[in-house]
Amino acid sequence: MSLLRIRAEETEAPVRPSDVALIIGATEPIDVRLDEVHAGPVAGVSAEMQVKFERGQPGFAYVDETDVLMVRLEHKVSCFIKDNPGTETTINLHHIVAFQVRSELDVSAAAVGAFIETNAYFIAYPYVRQSITQLTGSLGLPPVVLGFMKRDEWPFHEEASADHEAPEGPE
């Protein structure tokens, strides 16, 4: 029997923090791994190297046989020497975060998306930081160390704050 049922919502109902809390309570992270890397070419190396870090669109899938929710996170790092065209080195990397589903859940796809934004990224980010530092160093570039992730700069921060200030009424 499948423990997780993800339904598509016909309307764009807002996701409540309590919807995400249900997913958090019913899952446990069991694996974080680097899944795919595309890097290069190394076009320029300099101590004045600039770095641009971007997130891609996350994805998820549920493996029914093992009751595992798989989340795939995509990131792109561009390293370049400012005002020097043709020096860009691009690194595309994908991480998989696996969550064991431990109890029955019936949630919307939007709630899973909010769970990814508010939890999966924070679980994976130390691994993403380490991968980027190692990859840039291995490519002969100055090792890139990303800054810390700050919750107040992330999506859904305002909704979570509002939920703590004013308790929800009966549904």
What does this structure look like?
The protein has 171 residues and is an alpha+beta fold. It has one domain (15-141): Bacterial Protein-export protein SecB (Roll), CATH 3.10.420. 29% of the residues lie in helices and 35% in strands. It has three helices and seven strands; from the N terminus they run E-H-E-E-E-E-E-E-H-H. The protein has helices at residues 17-26, 109-138, 157-165, and strands at 4-7, 27-39, 49-55, 59-63, 68-81, 89-101, 105-108. The strands form two sheets. Strands 2, 3, 4, 5 and 6 form a five-stranded antiparallel beta sheet that branches. A two-stranded parallel ribbon has the order 1-7. Strand 5 (68-81) and strand 6 form a beta hairpin. Helix 1 (17-26) crosses helix 2 (109-138). The longest helix is centred in the last third of the chain and has 30 residues, at 109-138. The protein is elongated, with a radius of gyration of 19 Å. The two termini are 28 Å apart.
Layout: helices, strands, pairs:
Layout: E1 4-7, H1 17-26, E2 27-39, E3 49-55, E4 59-63, E5 68-81, E6 89-101, E7 105-108, H2 109-138, H3 157-165
Parallel strand pairs: 1-7
Antiparallel strand pairs: 2-6, 3-5, 4-5, 5-6
Summarize the structure.
Helix content is 29%, strand content 35%. The protein has 171 residues and is of the alpha+beta class. Strand 5 (68-81) and strand 6 (89-101) form a beta hairpin.
The domain tally reads 1
Radius of gyration: 19 Å
Instruction: Specify the CATH homologous superfamily.
Output: SecB-like
Structural class: alpha+beta
Mean pLDDT: 86
Order of helices and strands: EHEEEEEEHH
Share of helical residues: 25-40%
- In DSSP terms, counting alpha (H) and pi (I) runs of 4 or more, how many helices? 3
For the record, the CATH architecture stands as Roll
Q: Quaternary arrangement of the chains shown? A: single chain
Distance between the termini: 28 Å
Q: Low-confidence spans: pLDDT under 50, at least 5 residues?
A: 159-171
Q: What is the β-strand count?
A: 7
Reading off the top of the CATH hierarchy, the class is best stated as: Alpha Beta
By CATH, the topology is Bacterial Protein-export protein SecB
